[in-house]
């Protein structure tokens, strides 16, 4: 019996797009879906999700076992977050050690993570929907690397330490980086 050949892609998911290929929901009929980015092989699925307001690296595969492995193991996922305000060293320490967030109506203590303030603004494509600018107060950028992925976790974590997220971009999953992709671009990769 011949082994099935699987297909894998990395995508720069834009802001405002859902991490699914289509929906029969009447409430979502005006939404943007991954299927708008091109033709994909039958059986393609996203590995994990990025919410509609988040952007960045999303992996796609036809290999359900690989998808399950990446979602269920402790693979690092790194995010750049633009925050409302100039984040303090104390808030960074809180993010690194653990913060309490709400999840499914219950309190949840996050696992320790890697977090640091970025000294320069990352070079990212401009978002089609503008974010408020410095005239409305300072902003800062942080890198947060997690090995877990609760719903809207990074946003909840930065809010818990007093610096709400204005823009969230996933830049890395394991050893795969967003590097070189433009908004909405799809690239075939080897996994």
Q: Which descriptors would you attach to this protein?
A:
191 residues, globular, two-stranded parallel ribbon
In short:
14% of the residues lie in helices and 32% in strands.
* Percent helix: 10-25%
Mean pLDDT: 90
SS elements, strand count: 13
The best one-word shape is: globular
Sheet-strand content, in percent, reads 25-35%
**Topology pattern, helix = H, strand = E:** EEEEEHEHEEEEHEEE
The biggest beta sheet, please? 9 strands, mixed
Structural class: alpha+beta
Termini gap: 22 Å
Number of helices: 3
Rg from alpha-carbon coordinates: 17 Å
Low-confidence segments, ≥5 residues, pLDDT <50? Answer: none
Can you walk me through this structure?
It contains three helices and 13 strands, in the order βββββαβαββββαβββ. The longest helix has 9 residues, at 64-72. It has helices spanning 64-72, 89-97, 153-160, and strands spanning 8-13, 17-18, 32-33, 45-47, 55-61, 77-84, 100-103, 106-109, 114-117, 139-146, 165-173, 176-177, 186-188. It is globular. The model has no long low-confidence stretch (mean pLDDT 90). The protein is α+β, with helices and mostly antiparallel strands.
What's the layout of helices and strands?
Layout: E1 8-13, E2 17-18, E3 32-33, E4 45-47, E5 55-61, H1 64-72, E6 77-84, H2 89-97, E7 100-103, E8 106-109, E9 114-117, E10 139-146, H3 153-160, E11 165-173, E12 176-177, E13 186-188
Parallel strand pairs: 2-3, 5-11
Antiparallel strand pairs: 1-5, 1-13, 4-5, 6-10, 6-11, 7-8, 9-10, 11-12
């Amino acid at each position: 019996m011949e082994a099935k050949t699987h297909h894998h892609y990395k995508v720069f998911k834009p802001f405002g797009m859902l991490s699914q290929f289509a929906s029969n929901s009447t409430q979502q009929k005006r939404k943007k879906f991954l299927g708008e980015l091109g033709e994909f092989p039958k059986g393609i699925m996203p590995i994990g999700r990025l919410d509609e307001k988040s952007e960045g690296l999303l992996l796609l595969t036809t290999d359900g076992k690989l998808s399950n492995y990446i979602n269920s193991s402790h693979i690092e996922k790194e995010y750049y977050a633009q925050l409302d305000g100039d984040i303090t060293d104390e808030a960074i320490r809180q993010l690194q050690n653990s913060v309490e967030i709400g999840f499914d109506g219950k309190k949840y203590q996050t696992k320790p993570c890697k977090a640091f303030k970025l000294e320069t603004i990352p070079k990212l494509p401009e978002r089609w929907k503008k974010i408020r600018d410095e005239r409305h107060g300072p902003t800062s950028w942080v890198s947060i690397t997690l090995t877990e992925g609760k719903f809207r976790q990074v946003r909840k974590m930065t809010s818990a330490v007093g610096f709400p997220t204005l823009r969230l971009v996933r830049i890395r999953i394991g050893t795969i980086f967003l590097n070189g992709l433009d908004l909405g671009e799809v690239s075939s990769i080897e996994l």
